[in-house]
Design brief:
This is Helix-hairpin-helix domain-containing protein. With 287 residues, the chain is an all-alpha fold. It is 52% helix and 3% strand. The chain is built from 14 helices and 4 strands. A two-stranded parallel sheet has the order 1-2. It is elongated. It starts with a helix and ends with a strand. About 2% of the residues have low confidence.
């Protein structure tokens, strides 16, 4: 025992040295704790936060504006939900749907108000977004002109009822072109718009303009504008500019993509006559 004690016994100087060493270690630990925290606190750049917040506010305002925007539409195809979004009452929507269910069509904002009974303020708000087919605007123009006095010497003929001889009065139209116009008119069941004259081979834009000066569409074929997302393949094939092959391609594309949202999509369909899209829109709508 004395042998072990002789090895572990410390002198007073050694004990003091150990005590001082312990104090130094503790002091060094305190120094590290106070001057070097375990996790550095991130610096907050308030100016960047303010800038980001302003950007978010701007995006929110733009989103609100977009919600209030009314995009162009044909009021003949207003659904009950669309009517609700526009601010129409249930009674007004019911009157509109009942009118359309009877197979009748509206051709002007005045017709829309007369049928639905909406207020002047609501009509003023939504009517700028109304888009009716071109031929309805032409027909309305003719109706207005017919109620006003016109010089007796002006005699506008109906392009859908004239014969080949009548067409020859136009400079640039002879026997061949006059017969060609009549034949094409009969093949499509009558013109809905003068733009369909583009499809008559041999007619130049200048001659079409002369036709427009002497003839008008005072009558039109009984055509129902079909919803491209609801029409079936057989009905689609009967529309001018289409055949059974194109109709099948359209229906296949519609099924694969769960509907068609715009006419621009149709350009993706093989063999689709997109150069005639302005005439195709006379027969089809996308809802």
């Amino acid at each position: 025992m004395k042998f072990l004690r002789s090895h572990f016994a410390l002198s007073k100087g050694q004990q003091n040295g150990i005590f001082v060493l312990v104090l130094l270690i503790i002091g060094f630990q305190i120094f590290l704790f106070l001057n070097f925290p375990s996790e550095a606190q991130p610096m907050i750049d308030q100016s960047r936060i303010d800038k980001f917040q302003k950007k978010l506010d701007s995006l929110n305002q733009n989103s609100i504006k977009r919600k209030d925007t009314i995009y162009p539409f044909n009021p003949n195809y207003i659904s009950d939900f669309k009517g609700y979004q526009l601010g129409m009452s249930i009674e007004e929507i019911d009157r509109l749907l009942a009118y359309r269910a009877s197979g009748k069509w509206m051709n002007s904002a005045e017709d829309f108000q007369k049928i639905t009974g909406i207020s002047d303020s609501l009509l003023l708000k939504i009517s700028p977004s109304f888009r009716f087919p071109e031929w309805t605007q032409k027909l309305n123009s003719v109706k207005i002109q017919s109620t006003t006095s016109a010089p007796a010497e002006i005699n506008i003929l109906d392009l859908n009822s004239v014969n080949a001889e009548d067409l020859k009065v136009v400079n640039g139209i002879g026997e061949v072109l006059s017969q060609r116009i009549i034949k094409y008119r009969n093949s499509i069941g009558g013109f809905l718009s003068l733009i369909q004259l583009k499809d008559v081979y041999g007619l130049t834009p200048e001659v079409v303009e002369r036709i427009d000066q002497k003839f008008d569409l005072l009558s039109r074929p009984d055509v129902t504008i079909k919803n491209l997302n609801l029409i079936n393949e057989e009905e689609l094939a009967e529309i001018p500019y289409f055949n059974s092959k194109i109709a099948k391609e359209i229906i296949t594309y519609r099924k694969l993509h769960e509907g068609i949202s715009s006419f621009e999509e149709l350009a993706k369909i093989n063999a689709f006559p997109y150069d005639k899209i302005d005439r195709i829109k006379l027969y089809l709508a996308i809802e």
